[in-house]
Amino acid sequence: MRAARVASASIKAAFAALIFCSAPARAEVHKFLNPCGAQQLCASYQLVLTPPDGWEIDKQASRQNKIQIIVPNGASFATADPLIYVEVFYHRDKQQTLADFARISNARWVAANAKAKTSELAPIERSNGKPPFIRFVFENPDKAQQAYEIGAFGIDSDKDGNEFVLDVVVSGNSKQALDRADAAYVAFLKAH
User: Fold this and answer.
1) Are 55 and 183 contacting, i.e. CB atoms less than 8 angstroms apart?
2) What is the pLDDT at residue 163?
3) In 3D, which of 5, 65, 29, 45 has the Cα closest to residue 192?
4) Residue 4: what pLDDT?
5) Are the C-beta atoms of 55 and 187 separated by less than 8 Å?
6) Distance separating alpha carbons of residues 190 and 192, to the nearest angstrom
């Protein structure tokens, strides 16, 4: 019993130290360690972001889904159409290009959604000097909540220089929903 309390206290202390050490505002990606099993900590990552004008982070949905979810002001994850979400992946394979990462990710999506179609869009240059986001449009007729999406893949880093892949998606149930969000989405990509 005492060993379990000591282990639990050690995990809590490590988590608190991680939060304290990850405070610098210059890092674009922050790493968090979360309890994920018997005396284990699992890493998760978040982009330091600013929602586009007229949008806000749905903190509850972000926490529950373990991704950052951005919705129009006054909406929630449950009611927003469209919405933007950001998922951050540690870039383990430094030999893998961003285009290869995107190709593999897109192939997995199409394999899991038989009627889905994807095509490439023009890249979006970023104002921070980082490589451009590469973009794809997805049509998913079998997924009512994600019938139309535009996904953008980009590279970012943390304060230690570790590299991450960003997957920034605007999702809606119609092309019109994506059209309504296009200016905000593109502005978000350019700024990040």
Assistant:
1) no
2) 93
3) 29
4) 38
5) no
6) 6
CA atoms within 13 A on the CB side of 104: 7
What contacts 24+ positions apart, CB below 8 Å, involve 130-137?
130/154, 130/155, 130/156, 131/98, 131/155, 133/166, 133/168, 133/189, 134/98, 134/99, 134/102, 136/102, 136/106
* Per-block mean pLDDT, blocks of 10 residues, the chain (192 long): 38 39 54 86 92 96 93 94 95 92 92 89 94 94 82 93 94 92 96 94
The single residue listed with the structure tokens 């973009």 is 135
Model's pTM, two decimal places? 0.82
Q: Which domains can be identified in the chain, with CATH numbers?
A: 50-191 (3.40.1000)
Q: Phi first, then psi: what are they for 79, rounded to 5°?
A: -110, -15
